[in-house]
Write a structure and sequence with these properties.
The complex is a heterodimer of chains A (443) and B (482). Chain A has nine helices and 18 strands. Chain A is an alpha+beta fold. In chain B, a hairpin with a 2-residue loop joins strand 2 and strand 3. The chains are: A alpha+beta (443), B alpha+beta (482).
């Protein structure tokens, strides 16, 4: 890995040198390399083994005055890279000058590459047999959990180790490595006419932190069993409790609308809303690129901007957008580290059980389906399934319904934020209770 | 010219590989043949050129190169896979050794069946250079689209137009002796308009393309239709009211609303889910799953279409597969592995995103065949309902059969007439049940404009959908108004 670092940093600088030689006024290069292994077991037997010799990709951006062009390739031979640079510069003839184009200003670049503890070397010591054994135990646990678990879509252990390099013509060069492993399991349960699927997975940069295969298998089984016997819900307006996975998905959609590109194009319902109330006063959203070992952590962004912690929503008020150098210039402000990294909602004080107990008649949302979200207006309409709440208790599963509202109204009507924040991916949220949404289903 | 090159010449010119070297690599992959192992190598070389016109200027033209090979070993229902981004004999040999380790976990099995003995099609016969030239013409077209949209209405405040031109060649070599080359062009034009009035903002979009030359957009002023459609949708939405919530009759327009068919039945009929018994359609061949008016096919052989292929990504020529005939379930979509295991053979539907991915059964162009009614009589027949023509996309839960597809805008039908425009809403139904409610099928069957991308297990592939105007009763519409 150390050798790779030096070799790839030199390669990036070679490309920058070629760009300069051929007339570029500025340029930058990102290189990613990775190796990954994916083992899948189904019904107790190995189904698929995927091993990558070495994946890699290089992307290049060239500035000729205020004109920008870009290219990417996986062919790292110097002859090809020289050709690529020549072709990329030639493309500049097709483009028009953009007064906002340019590399980031020096003071926004990472000045040192922070060690964020992103790599676990113990993963590479695992044999393929060890990985198969973990996937097997995981699936075995799910299938043994209950006799209604009748079939399986398999369990997988996958891992990858990657290296990211970034360099630009203003003298920045940096690199960092990162690992990731995940164990997942998806099973089928049957009871009478009802057949359902569900699963569970765990991902982490550290092998020791993904949890036991049995606990993941058991959770997959619990989740599929609670969907059995689902009926259609009725059309009505009720409170909806988003489980942590659903709440994180909603947060991710909200963050997409806060991206600088959507703001300067005015294709976001958050345009002109900085400093305004966009959510209930208890809601605070943080994006933190520097969490040690975080799945979304990075010492610098794809254009070398220093990783940092940002408050996106501060007690219900919109505090900042996600700004890279281009969108910041377009909006007449300074960049703040680029796109999202580790994004989360600050936990509240209520347990998920207390939140469910506060609902007399409503939906506990566990699955959504379809693309029904409009970031320009905030209109939200999605297929849904989950568990119906009656008198504060999870009563019976429901499916084939839709939930609809407007995200701005939904966030303002949040009535409870759970204490159950857990970083299962780079976007995380505790349980959220939305005051009221429209359900469509049976008459 | 590349078009007349043989597969061997292509591999020799591009990677310096000889036939003897390929033989040796395949030999390492299959190991001892008496286990019944099947192996293939998928070579992929291509370039995509991207142009974006945004906020009044042509920004950031880009070019991305793809080059690599994936090696697969199949023994019964077990697959070993590896790939390399840097094709040479040494890396291919390593990949073959990696893929062959699946044999350690396998019993001896029946060998994979040879595919159907069809001829490779010639559905997109393009020659010469597709990338790069004529760049000024492309730039000019994007500029004209921007102008056309803004001209439509002063409330159009921004236009984003993008054009992608792809020229890709794949070569597939198999242990059954196949050695096939397919050059696959793919173009896509996409227009998005932002309309603004007071504090209200809306967007509209339109896109299209296929396995065609860029000149396609200039013929018949096709580019102008996309410009107008995007601008009209954005302006129309400025006055749209919230969509209704609940069960109602829905009329779907022709073309892209066929995404309904893709989600409601297409995925559920893919061979892998049915072999494993995880689909809501498993073991339902011969059963009535839709109204008599419904005949649904998957056809990979329509010339120039986005979802069409001369050969699938396992080297099998694509076909025309009847999935549902007059409401009765007839068939599944198969790749080599699942087709062999189900004793059914491949239908030419083995597809993959790239050389970094294992193929699986996927759709090509999936559509509902035309019927008797005119679109006007279908709309006229509805007392109160929704007419939906523009859609974002959809999703399905294969196992319980619930599917969604999301309209980006719609119009209310009152007493047989189109009245008020309404905002987008998600429609939901259940695959094996909802098509029983198809009560009228139009005579205006059309495939979509060539814009769809389908995702399955993290792999995206270009697909087509199609449908005539249809009427479905009792559809659940996910609006916000009672």
């Amino acid at each position: 890995m150390k050798n790779d670092k030096a070799r790839l940093e030199a390669l990036a600088q070679f490309v920058i040198g070629e760009a300069k030689r051929m007339g570029a006024t500025d340029s930058d290069v990102s290189i990613g390399t990775w190796s990954s292994v994916d083992t899948t077991v189904r019904l107790g037997e190995v189904e698929k083994l995927e091993t990558a010799a070495q994946g890699r990709s290089l992307s290049l951006r060239v500035f000729v005055g205020q004109v920008v062009t870009s290219a990417s390739t996986s062919d790292f031979t110097r002859r090809n890279l020289t050709k690529l640079v020549r072709g990329t510069i030639a493309l500049a003839k097709a483009a028009q000058p953009d007064e906002y184009a340019g590399l980031p200003d020096k003071e926004d670049l990472a000045s040192l590459v922070a060690d964020l503890d992103l790599t676990d070397t113990s993963i590479s010591k695992l044999s393929v047999a060890d990985k198969i054994a973990m996937a097997k135990s995981c699936e075995d646990a799910a299938r043994a959990f209950d006799e209604r678990v009748t079939n399986s879509q398999g369990a997988s252990f996958s891992d990858s180790l990657g290296l990211t390099v970034y360099a630009n013509s203003r003298g920045f060069v940096g690199s960092y490595s990162g690992s990731r492993c995940s164990l997942s399991c998806s099973v089928i349960a049957q009871q009478g006419d009802s057949m359902q699927t569900d699963g569970w997975s765990s991902s982490n940069r550290k092998l020791a932190l993904i949890g036991t295969p049995e606990s993941i298998g058991n959770e997959a089984a619990r989740r599929v069993l609670r969907r059995l016997g689902a009926v259609r819900g009725k059309s009505q307006e009720v409170p909806v409790v988003f489980d942590p996975v659903m709440a994180a998905q909603l947060l991710g959609q909200f963050a997409g609308v806060a991206a600088g590109g959507a703001i300067y194009r005015r294709t976001s319902f958050l345009v002109d809303k900085l400093g305004e109330q966009v959510a209930c006063p208890e809601l605070t959203v943080i994006d933190d690129a520097l969490i040690p070992g975080g799945l979304g952590s990075r010492p610098f962004s794809g254009e070398g901007l220093a990783g940092r912690q940002r408050t996106i929503v501060d007690n219900g008020k919109l505090a900042s957008y996600f700004l890279d150098s281009y969108s910041a210039r377009k909006l007449g402000t300074r960049p703040n580290g680029g796109g999202q990294s580790n994004l989360y909602i600050k936990p509240g004080t209520k347990t998920p059980e207390e939140i469910i107990a506060s609902v007399k008649n409503g939906l506990y949302l566990t699955h959504v389906s379809g693309p029904g979200f409009n970031g320009v207006t905030g209109d939200y309409s999605r297929g849904a399934s989950g568990i119906w709440i009656e008198n504060g208790e999870l009563a019976h599963p429901v499916q084939e319904i839709t939930i609809a509202g407007n995200v701005l109204d939904m966030l303002k009507s949040i009535e409870a934020i759970g204490n159950d924040l857990e970083f299962r991916s780079s976007v995380a949220s505790p349980t959220l209770k939305i005051g009221s949404m429209m359900i469509a289903g049976k008459q | 010219m590349k078009a007349v090159e043989t597969p061997s010449q292509f591999l020799s010119r591009t990677f310096g590989l000889t036939s003897a070297q390929l033989e040796r690599v395949l030999g390492i992959a299959t190991g001892s043949r008496d286990r019944g192992a099947f192996a293939d190598i998928y070579f992929q070389v291509g370039t995509t050129e991207g142009l974006v016109f945004d906020q009044g200027i042509l920004k950031n033209p880009s070019r991305s190169e793809v080059s690599g090979a994936g090696i697969r070993v199949v023994i019964g229902d077990k697959t070993g896979y590896s790939y390399t981004d840097h094709v040479n004999v040494r890396n291919l040999t390593t990949a073959a050794r990696n893929a062959a380790t699946i044999a350690l976990h396998s019993q001896v099995v029946d060998p994979i069946q040879v595919g159907p003995q069809r001829q490779q099609h010639n559905l997109y016969p393009l020659e010469g250079i597709l990338i790069g030239l004529p760049l000024p013409e492309k730039v000019d077209l994007l500029t004209r689209i921007d102008r056309e949209c803004r001209k439509y209405d002063p409330r159009i405040k921004n236009v984003t137009v993008s054009l992608a031109v792809q020229d890709e060649t794949v070569v597939i070599v198999t242990s059954l002796g196949d050695l096939i080359l397919d050059r696959r062009p793919l173009i896509r034009l996409s227009v998005s308009c932002l309309a603004e009035e007071g504090s209200r903002r809306e967007t509209g979009s339109s896109s299209g393309g296929g396995r065609l030359d860029f000149a396609f957009f200039l013929e018949d002023d096709r580019w102008k239709k996309h410009a107008l459609k995007a601008a009209q949708e954005a302006i129309g939405l400025l006055s749209a009211v919230p969509a209704p919530a609940g069960e109602m009759t829905v009329v779907l327009g022709n073309g892209w609303p066929g995404v309904l068919i893709h989600e409601a039945v297409g995925h559920g009929l893919e061979g892998d889910f049915n072999r494993k018994g995880t689909s809501a359609f498993s073991k339902m061949i011969g059963e009535k799953v839709a109204s008599d008016l419904c005949t649904i096919v998957d056809d990979g052989t329509v010339p120039g279409r986005r979802g069409s292929l001369n050969i699938d990504d396992e080297g099998v020529p694509t076909g025309n597969t009847v999935l549902i005939e007059k409401g009765v379930l007839k068939g599944y979509l198969q790749d080599r592995t699942n087709g062999s295991l189900m004793r059914h053979g491949s239908t030419g539907n083995g597809r993959r995103e790239s050389y970094r991915h294992v193929p699986m059964p996927r759709m090509t162009n999936t559509y509902l065949a035309g019927g008797q009614s005119t679109p006007e009589e279908i709309i006229r027949s509805v007392k109160r309902g929704l007419y939906a023509v523009t859609f974002g996309g959809g999703q399905v839960d294969i196992t319980n059969g619930d599917y969604t597809f999301s309209a980006t805008s719609a119009i209310l039908i009152e007493d047989g007439k189109l009245t008020t425009p309404v905002k987008g809403a998600t429609l939901i139904g259940n695959g094996p049940k909802s098509l029983h409610h198809v009560s009228m099928v139009g005579n205006d069957m059309a495939l979509d404009e060539g814009t769809g991308t389908c995702g399955k297990r993290g792999q995206s592939v270009p697909v087509g959908v199609g449908m005539p105007t249809i009427r479905i009763d009792n559809v659940t519409v996910g609006g916000t108004s009672r």
